[in-house]
Design goal:
- There is one protein chain.
- By secondary structure, the chain is an alpha/beta fold.
- Helices cover 47% and strands 17% of the residues.
- It folds into 2 domains: 139 residues, Indigoidine synthase fold, CATH 3.40.1790.10; 183 residues, Indigoidine synthase domain (Indigoidine synthase fold, 3-Layer(aba) Sandwich).
- The protein is built from 12 helices and 14 strands.
- Strand 6, helix 6 and strand 7 form a beta-alpha-beta unit.
- The N and C termini lie far apart (43 Å).
- The structure holds pseudouridine-5'-monophosphate and manganese (II) ion.
- Pseudouridine-5'-monophosphate binds next to helix 3, helix 8 and helix 12.
- The site of pseudouridine-5'-monophosphate (PSU) has 18 residues, from helix 3, helix 8 and helix 12.
């Protein structure tokens, strides 16, 4: 692995806790291990948005800022990634910097996890893989920007995020799904897989850059306590699905829907013309839409990520204080 001293990474870790899933050997960051031992709230954060979702150098700044916001809101951040084949819950500052600069990090969904651990490779976890690792690590709340979904014009391109949401019982806080996706079909797949979709202070499923997709959510919750109650009821039923908490982008930073739509149409046409396939589709569309809409989309993206990290910390706190 590049210039980073691998031995130093291992020394930064502590393994005082056994993982919840004993067959996965999770490396906890020191701060995360302590928070788990003391029963304090933790928020998991994903890493694909750092390596494949945001351009440099904004990616590292945002990753650091999200951790800071979680701490300011009274919880402990646990950024999830695979470093040299090791599933990590909580990265050191050096590891986060390394990940943000490294060109050799595989975008990892569920199916990629054994591939990177078998080859001691680096992996950035998508929503699906972050859920899986966070759950194995005993971390019940996870914040991100947007989930993957069903692709527009390609209804067989269904993100593994949706299936993972149906089988891993944690809580994912996001700003809905980007309108590069077919949002009505995405909601149909979530329904099929038994995933309750909650609107946080809204009745409408948010569309990432814009506060509303026009599609209804299953239930509205206006505060963290209401979400915590719903999560406890999910657990009481023994259901295996995640709770999906969708939070609209703060109004001041939202983008006009028509501006977004023009960029999305253009990006979709390009992706089709260039025959972009598989795991490359989403990063390609994200990059092109972001280039075409410039600073405004970047501001909205960062604003909603920060907002989601704060809401997730509040939900984690409400869950921990019972
Ligand atoms: N949507 C975004 N930003 C992102 C992603 C989605 O607005 O960074 C990333 C997330 O990590 C998500 C993944 O889990 O893309 C979905 O990829 P795919 O569609 O290939 O499943
Ligand atoms: Mn796909």
């Amino acid at each position: 692995m590049s210039s980073l001293n691998q031995a130093r990474i291992i020394n930064h870790k502590t393994d005082i806790l056994g993982p919840v899933n004993p067959s996965i050997d999770i490396e906890y960051g020191a701060e995360v291990a302590l928070a788990i031992a003391e029963g304090r709230p933790i928020v998991a954060l994903e890493s694909t948005l750092i390596t494949h979702g945001l351009p440099r150098p904004v990616n590292l700044e945002v990753a650091q800022r999200l951790e800071e916001i979680v701490r300011e809101a009274g919880a402990t951040p646990a950024t999830i990634a695979i470093i040299a084949g090791r599933p990590c819950a909580g990265l050191t500052a050096d590891e986060l910097t390394f990940l943000a600069h490294c060109d050799d990090v595989r975008k990892c969904s569920r199916r990629d996890l054994p591939l990177v651990t078998a080859t001691q490779a680096h992996g950035a976890t998508t929503v699906a893989a972050t859920m899986l690792v966070a759950h194995a690590a005993g971390i019940p709340v996870f914040a991100t920007g947007g989930i993957g979904g069903v692709h527009r014009g390609h209804p067989f391109d269904v993100s593994a995020d949706l299936l993972e949401l149906g089988r891993t019982p944690i809580t994912v806080v996001c700003a809905g799904a980007k309108a590069i996706l077919d949002i009505p079909l995405t909601l149909e797949v979530l329904e099929t897989h038994g995933v309750p979709v909650i609107g946080y202070g809204t009745d409408a499923f948010p569309a990432f850059y814009t506060p509303s997709s026009g599609c209804p959510v299953d239930m509205r919750c206006d505060d963290a306590a209401a979400v915590a109650s719903l999560i406890r009821n999910r657990d009481r039923w023994g259901l295996s699905a995640a709770c999906l908490v969708t939070v609209p982008v703060p109004a001041a930073d939202a983008l006009p829907a028509d501006v977004m739509e023009d960029a999305i149409q253009a990006a979709l046409a390009e992706a089709d013309a260039q025959q972009i396939r598989g795991k490359d589709v989403t990063p390609y569309l994200l990059a092109r839409v972001s280039e075409m809409t410039g600073n405004a989309s970047r501001v909205a993206n960062i604003s909603l990520l920060e907002n989601n990290a704060r809401v997730a910390a509040e939900i984690a706190s409400a869950l921990a204080s019972r």
